[in-house]
Amino acid sequence: MIDFNLDKTISWQTALSQAIQDPQELLALLELDPSLLAAAKSAANLFPLKVPRGFAARMQKGNVNDPLLKQVLPLGAELLDVAGYQQDPLQESDVNPIPGLLHKYQSRVLLTFVGTCGINCRYCFRRHFPYGDNNPGTDGWDRALDYIAKDSSITEVILSGGDPLVANDKSLWALSEKLNDIPHVKRLRIHSRMPIVLPERITADFLHWMGQLKQKPVLVTHCNHPQEISPAVEQAMQALSDVGTVLLNQTVLLKGVNDNVDTLVDLSEALFAAGIQPYYLHLLDKVQGAAHFDLPEEEAKNLHWGLNQRLSGYLVPKLVYEKAGAPAKLPVELYTA
Question: pTM, whole model, 2 decimals?
Fold first, then answer.
């Protein structure tokens, strides 16, 4: 493990503000080849580099193939225009009836509550998302809440973004107070990478908010490699579980990061040991700039079959993909033999 002179006493907001955003600094801290810098700067001009220092500290110095580094290091490959990869691969613009709200599936809506993340993952399917156009402003969320209130079929609200946990507790509390007035909303689901990359975010105040929610709280973490699960992450997960939070995880299959059975087995074991249920294993959404992470579907099927051979069923995430206009995430048809 690397110690980047991390100050364990600072707030999560300060830790977030001190995230590494300069490719030259990241390369220097990890003692990597300076020849990577030109391409990294070019790619970062299109989609900025952002990685918390605590997450970078889990990377191995001198290893350009470190699986955590590969998820965040801008590369020249992102600049290539690859056929079949789009800026809006899921056509979310078609299911965006009002700013800040996506209504893709029956019974649930997604609020793009924040337009930024705690870390910029290079394969992000929303790396081109027009967050500026989808920011309703402080008062504009009332329109989204009115949309939810008028549709009694909506039983679940999903906070996404960006990353909703970049928002402060006061903002989250204010939103949940308004959701309390909508009786048909049964669950509040939060999709966040923050508890993995910046576990300091799980503060006593946040836990208090989660514990008093009228809706059943569900937190879906995004973890792709067992190396991401530190002791601090485990402590955060235990604290969330103690206040009644359902913990699930979504993983994206990424070439060069987790495209082998041993890594995926170790990931499921580490997640479950931390109290997180392996939930989805996603094929990559075909977003422009991320083609170098993609795997052939047949290879994904073989990896998933390997997981089934080695793990109990409850440790095997569902292998899925998302298709624009589909009524839900779709299972990959696995076995013909």
Answer: 0.94
